TrEMBL record:
SMART domains: SEC14. This is CRAL-TRIO domain-containing protein. Transmembrane segments: none annotated. One of its GO terms (cellular component) is cytoplasm. It comes from Steinernema glaseri. CDD domains: SEC14. Residues 315-426 form the GOLD domain.
Amino acid sequence: MARRIPREEAHRYISLKELVEAVLNAAKDPVKAGVRIRIMSGDHAFPTLAELSPAQKEQIRELRARTVDLTETLPDYRTDFALLRWLIAHDYDLDAALPKLRWALQAFLSQGLDSLDLSSVDKVADAVDAVNPVVKYFPGGLMGCDREGHLIYVQALARVDPRSISKAGKVTDLFRCMMTDCQGVHSLICASERKTNRKMGVSLIIDLEGFSLDLMYMPTIKIFTNLITLLQMMYPDMGRRIYVVNAPSAVNTVYHMIQSVLAKETRNKVEFLDSSWRDRLCAELGAENIFEHWGGTKKAATATGRIRMGGKVPESVLIENLSHCHAPTPKELKKLTVPARRHGAVPVTVPEAGTRLRWWFRCDSGDIDFLIRKDGYEVWPRFRTTTEFVPEFGEIECDAAGTYELVFDNGHGKLWSKNIAFRVETGRAPISPFDM
């Protein structure tokens, strides 16, 4: 059993999921906007290398040694602070942190995140845009660093059009876009840590300008909830502060709709700013680091730089993006029923390395966890997928011959079975009807 560091030595943390949850929890009483509430209890949450205890260093060394087989092309995940984040997130329980970290590293490798150039804000934005052109209509993006070297990320949450974005493409493309974005954030945090020899984090600005209850489109909310859950598991302990600006009273309604899935302990980790929010952001993060749109003096080609500002997805973009989804005929589809709390697996024999494995499926209701496994490893990571508007389809190039299992997991389902209509095919050349 791994030795645990006493709680009094542990640094407090906030995960990416908690960043969003904290905003919505604090919205329970938006009239208190402007009351200063800090996420962290002091600078001890961001220690220097010299401030790490011998017990922390010992666990960091052990975690590094037990993941070295996966980090050859992911060097940022060998650093002391990167590994410390995983230990903090799991209360210094090495046995709990290790499998979660190994799963995340395997997912990063399966999605090719190790091959991306994420060395600047612009290169991160380019990498995100390259996953799917529709991502420009999903708000968010990096502004840069503050005066201390912490990153600044902006989420113009109210600018998303939930109905058009949910119909714009397969759910996993959105997940892959946000994984790329978060990987870029992590990469730039690590770069800042190498310069400062101090653990760094992200200050998140959530801009609710334009908020309306039209945003409460339940199919999209479920997709976003699944996305937050995924990012929480993959990128723990990244948050520093949350500033919420332009918050309307209607946010209270949002809180009551989703409070059952929120963590109580996040309630005091966010600050709603009053009408002087521009002055506050400039004072704390530096006017020179804030784009003009949010009250600063930082120059860019546009007032908001490379930050995606959302909007309705044009019909022409929807048509073009969905043109690659060639549905099989009913006769070409097979059926699989997955009971609640169970999973179903479809074995596929791959005759030789270099073979392409392609899939297409729809789930008749709700969401289903989909992954591809070989010899106990996830060669396509677990994504909780809904196909209400767009089916899931994709391909991988198999590195080795053998049996690959396409797994449809309904373990999170409490009562209802899920019916899957699917087609799987292998080959070395592009295969109709899965022409990408």
